Amino acid sequence: MMKNFEKSIVVLLSKIISDLTAIRHLVLAGFDGSARTIVRSVAEYMEVLVAVVHEPAFADEFVKSDTPEASQLFWQTHLRGGKLRRRITAAWADFFKTIAAHERQPITETFANWGRGSNPILSGSTHPSFVGGLFAAIPLKGKYRDENWLGTWGDKADFSVNTIYIITQFMFPILLLGSKFPFGIVRGGDTEPFPAYNQHDEFHRHVRTGRDILASLIISLCQETNRPFVFPEFDLSIWPPEQADSA
Q1: Which candidate, 17, 4, 86, 82, places its Cα nearest to that of 46?
Q2: CA torsion angle for 166, 17, 35, 126 (degrees, to 10)?
Q3: What b/e sequence results for 192-228 when a residue is b if at least 16 CB atoms lie within 10 Å of its CB, and e otherwise?
Q4: In whole angstroms, what separates CA 112 from the centre of its chain?
Q5: pLDDT in tens, 15-60
Q6: Of the given ranges (2-16, 150-164, 186-200, 230-244), which has the lowest mean pLDDT?
Q7: What are the structural domain ranges in the chain?
Q8: To which H or E segment does residue 174 belong?
Q9: Which residues, other chains included, contact 184 with Cβ-Cβ below 8 Å and sequence gap of 6+?
């Protein structure tokens, strides 16, 4: 029978993967404003995942949020008002525990705030505002200026690439803080951790290789010189040149 830790990991990852897939489809279809609404939510799910991996006993509280009323209580008790941020800060503090005390606090705060610089942008997309509606109607872009239809029906813009970049900022701490996950995780009250990494197990090798590839991709997104290769330019015009000549 699955324990609370396993249940929490399965449902958190399922939700994260589902939302990331939806974000990808929305961005490719030109609905990046709608994608950012989901980004705000999935970013919080990612931080809860970090909190559960850092403190497996926290899963006992998470699994109780199985009704609308219990979900609201869980949010008020464990997430709102900086409570979730304190859990993330504690995870980073443990990560940097070997660093001298006078250096540990500033670097812990820096990494605990990783990705949170995008929160004003995400809030502007999520909460009702004039600018949020404006971006949906008139995408701001420096290319394809001959396209004059409303963004209401989907229109890729220069900002679309940035939406993908924002979500990777929240993914990176999962890879760094949970560097051993799912291998060797010790849960409170257990005498044995999760199975250790076995280099002779093909599935274990796939998991570790996939983690390394994802980490490399996220790091690449941070480098301006790599963006043309990660985000190639597509012809977004209604009539490509060869069709326009014959039209």
Answers
A1: 17
A2: -80
A3: eebeeeeeeeeebeeeeeeeeeebeebeebeeeeeee
A4: 14
A5: 998 998 898 888 888 888 888 888 888 988 999 998 998 888 899 9
A6: 230-244
A7: 4-246
A8: helix 158-177
A9: 193, 194, 195, 196, 197
